[in-house]
Amino acid sequence: MSGVDTRLQPRRRGLTRRQKRRLSQSAQYVLFVAAVIAFAVSADWGRLKNQFAQWDIAKEMFPDVITLALKNTVLYTVSGFVVGLALGMLIALMRLSSVGPYRWLAGVYIEIFRGLPALLIFIFIGVAVPLAFPGTEIVGGTYGKVALALGLVAAAYMAETIRAGIQAVPKGQMEAARSLGFSSARAMVSIIIPQAFRIILPPLTNELVLLFKDSSLVLFLGVTLEERELSKYGRDLASTTANSTPILVAGLCYLLVTIPLGFVVRRMEAKAQEAVK
What we know:
It is a single chain. The protein contains 11 helices and no strands. The protein is mainly alpha-helical. It starts with 16 loop residues before the first helix and ends with a helix.
């Protein structure tokens, strides 16, 4: 028998796909650890501590940073969310309406307020409205202005979220309700909208987190000392003390709210995915 027995030749074996993936992940971890070590070694921690971590300054911020600044931030956020949810529901129903002008008006509103920065909306509420309607006061003073400004911005996003949730409900639900004698309006309120809200609850909660951060724009409305929110409160103290510790403390207060809310959003999204499966 001529030729070389191939069984005696060494086989060339490369890395498997799983091994390549593990190797790539290991390389990424090594690079990340190296970057963290390089940052830790090169940073001047003494200067950072002097500028951002003065315990005496941070201690003087309590309890006002909680009882005043954080409280106002939460009030601004909740009021803006309520206004945005109510207006967003109306805009969403207009988008789904069979009446053409309603759909057109809703579409124009969404495109305008989704395209404009929130800062411009605050300036418009604080400057343009008083100029256009002299002597007119928005109910609630600063709190009412913030609720309106945040609500106008949030409504554009919530409207599209609510519309998508309503359209995600199977059409058979409406047909079954009509066959039981429900009117279209009653079926929408009693059956369709409750099911839609179970679908859109995670993105609505995420919108609440975004509004919580956007509440910092209240400073453009001109607030009193008692109406300051976290960002304004931190900046004022930073200017007074010539130190950035108040800004760091204000940022940590934001995280006290946004991190738990983010966890809630992830849990709701996971439960929604399990329900679909």
